[in-house]
Write a structure and sequence with these properties.
Distance between the termini: 45 Å
Helix content: 40-55%
Order of helices and strands: EEEHEHHHEHEHEHEEEHEHEHHHH
Number of helices: 13
Structural class: alpha/beta
Strand order of the largest sheet: 3-4-5-6-7-8-11-12
Bound molecules: flavin mononucleotide
Number of strands: 12
Largest sheet: 8 strands, parallel, barrel
Length: 328
């Protein structure tokens, strides 16, 4: 039975990737995840705001001396306080040394600009790929959706222009014309699209007059949105596609593959059940495939995508009508 897949140009034995978050904070834990069969790991994000021009100047003061990370690091001045970005590079190197599977660094970013030089340092520190976590607060009333999209496309183009390793883009689900935007990312060379960022819950404490933010673990119901997003893009973009959000069971992975995903990222289920869950999910996939006589995931990939439907917009609209007015 063949669970093999290609994600960001990397050949993986199966599509189960550990998603960005705290699971890979400890290199020993990263090795444990590899031992339980993780196909690749995504590190938690480093934030654009933490990568200041000054820090970059320090990193890149070594430019005239050579451009390898080892050299650059040895020339960088000792930081007075712990530097997030520098620590991140060291952490990346430690995780890389601990495992043989691909390690994907994650950058949370809002604007284009000088900080994108930092992505080069991630490459030099050994990252096998970079995942750009695009974030936009959408609170500026003078900024149009076209402005926001232009800025995001610019970031991706800029980072792509600097790196030789693949660049994936993790996206929020809230775009008016999602397919069009994905095409623009495709055109500037995004190697992968990761659907979707899961927003944390926000509530108001009316006594303390405070905003209460919670990041609750997901369940399989969170899968619906990414399934829809991947189904809409499968076969229509060059970039490989990954699902994040709500992948908890072997059946979730089968569904993601059927709509066209090349990889599935897991966080909540591993936080709740531990690394062994990877092995169980893989067994569930194999058992389901055997029972339903599928010999490879490649054969089922995309067979439930919108591309397989002659007129997806009309099909969707008809389903919507039928659901609300079953006898209408
Ligand atoms: C505690 C925690 C920390 C996270 N940190 C990051 C992060 O640094 N960068 C990122 O892109 N996503 C981060 N995520 C989001 C996950 O990568 C993932 O997209 C989300 O949890 C949905 O997947 P799940 O349903 O498998 O949990 C984090 C999630 C959790 C639960």
């Amino acid at each position: 039975m063949n669970l093999g897949t290609t994600y960001l140009g990397m050949l993986l034995h199966h599509p189960l990737i550990v998603g960005s978050g705290p699971l890979t904070d400890d290199p020993d834990r990263a090795r444990q995840l590899e031992d339980e069969g993780a196909a690749a790991l995504v590190l938690r994000s480093v934030y654009e705001e933490d990568i200041t021009g000054e820090q970059l100047a320090a990193f890149f003061s070594a430019e005239s001396h050579g451009d390898s990370f080892a050299e650059a690091a040895s020339y960088a001045p000792e930081p007075e306080a712990p530097l997030g970005p520098e620590e991140y590079l060291e952490h990346l190197q430690r995780v890389k040394a601990a495992v043989r599977i691909p390690v994907i660094a994650s950058l949370n970013c809002v604007t284009s600009g000088g900080w994108t030089l930092y992505a080069q340092l991630l490459e030099q520190a050994g990252a096998d790929a970079v995942e750009l976590h695009l974030y936009h607060a959408a609170s500026d009333p003078t900024m149009s959706s076209a402005d926001v999209e232009r800025q995001m496309v610019q970031i991706v183009g800029e980072v792509k222009g600097r790196l030789h390793i693949p660049v994936a883009v993790k996206l929020p689900p809230l775009f008016t014309a999602f397919g069009h935007f994905a095409h623009q990312l495709d055109e500037v060379g995004a190697d992968g699209l990761v659907l979707f960022t899961r927003f944390h819950k926000v509530d108001i404490d009316v006594v303390e007059l405070d905003v209460v933010r919670t990041l609750e673990p997901s369940d399989s119901s969170a899968l619906q949105l990414p399934l829809r997003g991947v189904a809409a893009l499968s076969g229509r973009v060059r970039a490989s596609l990954a699902v994040t959000g709500g992948v908890h069971t072997g059946l979730d992975v089968i569904k993601a593959t059927m709509v066209g995903a090349h990889a599935t990222q897991l966080v909540s289920t591993l936080l709740m059940n531990g690394p062994r869950r990877l092995r169980t999910i893989r067994q569930e996939i194999e058992a389901w495939m055997e029972e339903n006589e599928w010999s490879s995931l490649d054969l089922m990939r995309g067979n439930m995508s919108f591309g397989k439907i002659p007129n997806p917009a009309a099909f969707e609209r008809q389903n919507f009508r039928n659901l609300l007015t079953p006898h209408g």
